[in-house]
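Support reply, case 0932

Customer input (verbatim):
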Amino acid sequence: MPDIARGSIGGGPGIRHMAREMLRRTRPVIRARPSAYPTLRSAADPAGTGHSGSFAPALSAPSPARGMIGAMFNLSDSLRSLLIVSWRRADYHAHGLVGSLRLGLTLCRPFLKRAECAVLRARLVRLEMLTRRLLVLMVLEQPLPERVVRSSHKVSAPTRKPARPARRALFTRPVFRLSDPCPRPGAARPQPPSRAAALRPRMLYLDQPLPPPEPGEYPPRPDDLIPAQALVRRAVALRDVYADPARHIARMTRRLADDLRAPEPAPILAEDLPPVVRSPRQDTHERAAILELHDIALKAVAHADTS
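Our regenerated output:
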């Protein structure tokens, strides 16, 4: 792969093969549901037909001028095709994931079976990792706004009567997390208490049967109901990214513009992908596409830090 410091990211035969293979698998998906992926607009394609140009999701491509920093790199045609196909597939899977939960107007599903939570968590991790890398690549191809330094001088405002605190909404809309979660060293799932740690005696009377076991003493089963509202809110937030891409790309633009000028920016993308993303059980072409986009996104962020 060409060096990213040269100002462009190219795509070799491997990327073109992955893009063709994923496009072949995505054709029935595209016909099933119109995608809300960002349209492509450029001087060669002002109508945004998607044949050439760069990503500009519902936003006009700003020209490098005052208050703007030039684009970090240019995507090749093969890599841009891979991004478009990956965006369409993730859009379809994100909407299908929320649709399978059968949420109502309140977007609430407090409990799910243990097996369903495991499948939902694995699919969310893969789609969230892919979505963040797609957003980063689409943002870094466009000029970034310069960070506005606010003055420390405070202007005295006239004293006003303190307003009444706003009433908190009963059902808040979840917001997609722009950065990968930091791994917590030594974090482990809580284990149920053992029978030896029970406070009550196991035998009360010799002539009576044993009391029923405590809830924590039952072995975990796949059909147990466990809390799942946190996973449901993550799924809704992921669906909102593809329903309104302009809003979330603007959020990522502000986040990158602030982090790239900060003295010690917090990492947005993790260097190591979770095992569920690199699992061989996943489709070969989808796994290769995620790994390729992950490597390119890391190089693009590293190049932006040094430019």
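We compared this against your earlier run and they match. Two observations from our side: The radius of gyration is 24 Å. Residues 4-145+221-306 form one domain. Please reopen the case if you see a mismatch on your end.
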